[in-house]
């Protein structure tokens, strides 16, 4: 996810009290997954969505569209743009994963704060479909509007979902959390609502995900001409508003591979401040970006070879 202000975020006032555990924690989650993505916002979402959909050990039961309507560079129909692109991706992969429209904008400020959408109700439905004692895994790659709205509508799903999210920044040396990155500011109401909930959260901050770097020349060489989807992934890079970059962070992909390949990451437990729930959150503190980078091409090529 785009985050041109990630560096500034590290300088923000501390919002967490760090009680980080010294030992590494391991990511555990149910492979039944709802994927929530603002796919049309940037380049990285497409790569992450593809990686998640072709992961053989996962069962992605729904692909939700998220908005980025709060951004200065938004389109008039940001959620709908993501929804249409989600359908293009599932079409190229010949998958029948349900695609759901999400909230067109952030949560409301008072009253019924939820954005009622097909995506929010899909999260609720899939959560209640889980067996007793099991949690639906929700992976959010953008604004948290759909997830928080689902929880606002039906608070009982707090015991039935686990959230994995790309967002915030965290300075592990200074023990400071920042919340001015792109995904946070797209819906601060949703962020606060989830942090003050009991929903288990695992977060990869943007300053860690930044290590997931792609080189344009190698990306074009390995994807262009392999399949129409490979062409789309390359064309998305060049046709984007800042398409002249020769390298870029593929932020969202870092979260997907952190979950599918936990041997490539390190994690720590952080205790939130009292105004943010006073509870533990798992933070991904380090990734092996090079392993992840090569894995995308190898797995994409292997999927096409089936």
From TrEMBL:
InterPro entries in the cross-refs: Inosine/uridine_hydrolase_dom, IUNH, Ribo_hydro-like
Keyword match Cell division: no
Matches recorded under Gene3D superfamilies: Ribonucleoside hydrolase-like
Pfam families linked: IU_nuc_hydro
A GO molecular function held by the record: hydrolase activity
Keywords: Glycosidase, Hydrolase, Signal
Highest rank taxon of the organism: Bacteria
Extent of the signal sequence: 1-22
Residues annotated as domain Inosine/uridine-preferring nucleoside hydrolase: 33-271
Name of this chain's protein: Nucleoside hydrolase
Organism lineage string: Bacteria, Pseudomonadati, Pseudomonadota, Gammaproteobacteria, Alteromonadales
